[in-house]
Amino acid sequence: MAINPPGSALGSVPGGQAPVPPATTEDEFTATAAQTVFTLTQPFTTGGLIVLTINGQRFALDTDFTAAGTTLTWLDTPFVLESGDSVVVIYNND
């Protein structure tokens, strides 16, 4: 018994192709003391999804950092970055 037999409406996509999710980019940085600006490898646009973690802790867009184009700016809230902090940015654009 096929769970999703060919031709069924469940999971079928015109042309037989699976939908392609938006490309996800992950950029990793090692901060310098008091660094506030990071250059992303791909442009980020408003409406896309973005996650910023510093040393494994997640931070909020527009509260702790901003992102536009290829520039991510850390707003020094709630702390100033120290040399060696691990900064990871995962993002995509719809």
Verbal overview:
The protein is mainly beta. It has one domain (21-92). It has strands spanning 24-30, 37-44, 49-54, 57-59, 65-74, 86-92. The strands form 2 sheets. A 4-stranded antiparallel sheet has the order 1-6-3-4, with no helix packed on it. The protein has a two-stranded antiparallel ribbon with strand order 2-5. The protein is elongated, with a radius of gyration of 19 Å. The two termini are 37 Å apart. Residues 1-13 have low confidence and may be disordered.
Structure at a glance:
By secondary structure, the chain is an all-beta fold. Helices cover about 0% and strands about 45% of the residues.
Radius of gyration: 19 Å
Q: Beta-strand percentage?
A: 35-45%
How can the largest sheet be summarized? 4 strands, antiparallel
The count of domains is 1
Distance between the termini: 37 Å
Which blocks of ≥5 consecutive residues have pLDDT under 50?
A: 1-13
Strands in their spatial order, largest beta sheet: 1-6-3-4
- Tell me, briefly, the overall form: elongated
What structural class do you assign from the helix and strand content? mainly beta
- Helicity range: under 10%
Given the structure, what is the number of helices? Answer: 0
Give, in order, the helices and strands.
Answer: EEEEEE
- Give the rounded overall mean pLDDT: 84
Instruction: Give me the count of strands.
Output: 6
